[in-house]
Each structure stands twice: as C-alpha cells, then as structure tokens.
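Weekend entry, working from home. Most of the wet-lab plans are on hold until the incubator is repaired, so I used the time to fold the two sequences that have been sitting in the queue since the last round of cloning. Logging both here for the record. First:
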Amino acid sequence: MTALCRRRNALALLFLLLLSGSCSEKTVQAPGRSPEPAVAIEGVRLWDGSGAPLVSDAVVLIQGERIEATGPRGTVAVPAGARRIDAQGKTVIPGLINMHGHVGMTKGLKQSKENYTTENILAQLRQYARYGVTAVMSLGTDFEPMFEVRGPARPDEAPRATVFTAGRGFTGKQGYPAVLPGNAGIPVEVDTVDEVKAYLRELARQKVDMVKIWVDDHWGHYAKIRSELYNAIIAEAHRLNLRVMAHLFYLADAKMLAKAGLDGMAHSVRDRPVDDELIEVLKAKNVFLVPTLTREESTFVYAEPPAFLDDPFFARWADPEAIKALRDPAWGKKVRADPDFPKYAGQLKMGQQNLKKLFDAGVRVAFGTDTGPTARFQGFFEHRELELMVQAGLTPVQALQTATLNAAQCLRIEKDFGTLEKGKRADFIVLDADPLENILNSRKISQVWIGGREVD
C-alpha cells in the first residue's frame, strides 16, 4: 500500500470516528423527545384575576408550562392531538400567592433550626400546592438549603409551589423574635450600622427577593430593634436595589418605618386604629400591606379545640399527631395561661378593622398569612385568611384579587404570575363551585395545576 493510500485510509477512518462522535453527542444533548401535547380545559367558568369579568363556558389552553390562550368556547382554537378535559360547571381561578410564609422550620408542632432541611422545605412546598397556594414568599427564616431550591419546581421534581426568599431577616441584639423558643440563631441580630451593611452585602450576593426586619417588642416583653438600625437597613437595602418588608405591630412604628421608605408592611397595625397620617404616608410612598389575619387568630384559637380540626379539607393532609396534640386539654390550658391571652382576640379584630380602612382608602393590599410556624397550617390557613378578609368587609372578588394579581405586583412577578393570560405560567385552581359567590367555595378544590402540570 502506498503512503498516499495509507494517508487516505487514515483520513477516512478519522472522518468516520468524528462523525460517529458527533452523532453520539447529539443523541445525548438532544434526545429528540416530542413536545408535550397541549391541554385544553373546557367548559369552565373562568375568573382570570386581571379584573375582567368572569367568562362562562370558557376554555383554558395550556402549552408546556404556560397559558397559550383563554376565552369563550369557540374563540380558542384547540390543536389536533391536544388532551381535552371536560370541566363543565367548574370554576378556574389563578393559584394563590402568599406574600408572607415561612418554609422549612417546623415538623409537626415543633419549630427548630434542626428541622431546616431541603427535604422538609420541599415537603412543605408540596403541602402548599395541594391547597392551591402556587407561590410563596418565605420571609426571613431561610438558610442555604433554600437557595438550592428557590424558584419553580424543576421538570424532574413533582409539582410544588414556587418559592421566593428573603434569606435571614434582621432584629436587634437579643431582640424579638430571636429570644422566643425555637428561634435562636434564625434572625440576624445586629447592634451597629456596620453590622447592618455587612450583612446586607451578603443578602445582595444571595440576590434575595426581599429583606425582612422584625420591629416589635411583644407588648414590651422583649427588646425592639433601634430606629437608627432599621433606618440604616432600609437606606442601605435600597442602595443595593433590594426592597424591605417589616414585621410590625404598633401604629407609631408603622408611621416611622413608612416615612423611612419601607416597601411593605408584613402585618396589619394591631394596637390601635390607623389614622389619616398613616394612610397619607402609605399612599405617598406606595407602601403595601400584607394583613396576616390568621396569624392573629392562631394566638388564641387553640384555647379550645377549633371546629376546623374536624374539617376534611384540613384533616386530609394535616399531621394526625398534631391534630391529636391540639385536641388535648393540656394544649388549650397552655394557650390560656399566656399572660397576654386576653389581648389576642382584640388584636385580630383591630387588624381586620385596619385592613378594611386601609383597603377602602386605596392602600395596596397583598395576600399573606405568616403560615409555617407552630400550628399555623400551610395551605389550609390561606383559605381561612380569605374567609377572615371577607369577614373584615372585603368582597370575595377583592379578597381573591389580593391573593393573585395584587400579590404578584407587590412581589414584582406579574410578568409570569397572578393572572391567567397568554404567556403567563399555567398556575391555577379548578374548583367545584364559584368562590366569587361564596369565599368558602375556594376550598372545593377539584384540581391544582402548577407550571402546566397537575398536582397529585
């Protein structure tokens, strides 16, 4: 064989090897899976959360994780091969967005940093999802495992709530709530402006979705973060393009925080009625309110076993051991033994009155519950929150609007979340009855879809 032939054979062999390698690489990178077929949910009453009227006999068309189209039957072209679901007589609403939750710290009725694992975070996000809570802001109690799972579920995960995070929130040295049982080492305790700035740089590195401050002393029992520190937190956070929400209780603190540039109130004012001065500054500074009425109810409702412990909508997914403990007279005795117990029911009523007054005055209201700590049940309490908001004087439509479009806008995620419109994420609840007629119908869940996938 001549040298020329040997070179030609070698080149031919090299070409075949390269071609084979190239084809193998393509097979690995692009396995050639066909795209998932479209899904058409047909015959529903559709409340899309945008402010548009409810549409009877509508079609919701899903392609992948997004809404492809919505509208009255006959106006939406359903592609050949689509999976068609007859949902005649059911109502579809956007998934609920909780602007104030806590994820990962509790197992059963025990809250501890030791519970904070990736496994527990994902279990609680799936629990939210079962109840139609399709997105949650975990506000101020998060460590590294949260940054591994933040955002929506991956395609290889079971559907679960999308999670946003504020990392660890701020309090003062030996301040509330770091001094409470189960909270040691959770908030960052600061005593100087330099400490504030150093930790805010870390939050900016983590690209948190919000910054959290606790500004409370629980009726004077504990230390409250000093005003120069929370003023520095707000100013420095804004310099780093971060926004700030504050746990607060007192009207005076709400005014000072709002004037300092606070972005969101993580609770209602609960010590006294709000006044025109607060309303004026909240509107001028565009500060939003997250009422968390169920947080107040949870402080006294277990004095006697509440009726919802027997509600199948609650009990179906609740921890049986937690239910057993809450039925035990010893639990109610412990609740009633709290020296501040006589104040708690009044705090709820004050929070409801202030919610109604601020809502009617045009202050932005977004939905939140403070679920996640002990006996604040994720998923179920979000539906109880809607009920308490309606009891406060909001209409069912107004309450649902806070939990959909309003929450998405306040979290600045409205491009993808909050309404059921073309291009948005397919996060929605299919209900057996209309919650616009009776807010308790939000509990009559037939299906939950998150990112175009049905929750089991």
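Second, folded right after the first finished:
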Amino acid sequence: MANSKELKVTLLKSKFGRLKNHRACVAGLGLRKIRQTVTVVDTPENRGMIDQISYMVSVEEV
C-alpha cells in the first residue's frame, strides 16, 4: 500500500447516550471500552468517522 500511515485512536468518553450514528462510528473503528486504543489505517473513511466523534476520542499519528 502506498498510503500505509496509521492512526492510534483512543476512546475517552462513554458511547452511551450518544447519537446512533456516533455509536456506529465508535464500533466501526473497533472501539469498545473507555481508554481502549486501536490502530487504524489513515483512510478518508476512517478520518470521516474520527471527525464525527472527535469530541469522544484522541488521535495520534504513528
């Protein structure tokens, strides 16, 4: 892959009581628990999900 940059995404706030599509973005990124960290490929799709739930997560470039 030419664009093999990765992002470390950490869930900081609870997904309960959030909008349905925001919960879907959390699940789509593979996050389940608060303070869980996952590594995802830096794609426009993943960036879009991260932008939607930016108030719930922290992002670090790897």
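Plan for Monday: verify the second prediction. The longest helix spans residues 20-28.
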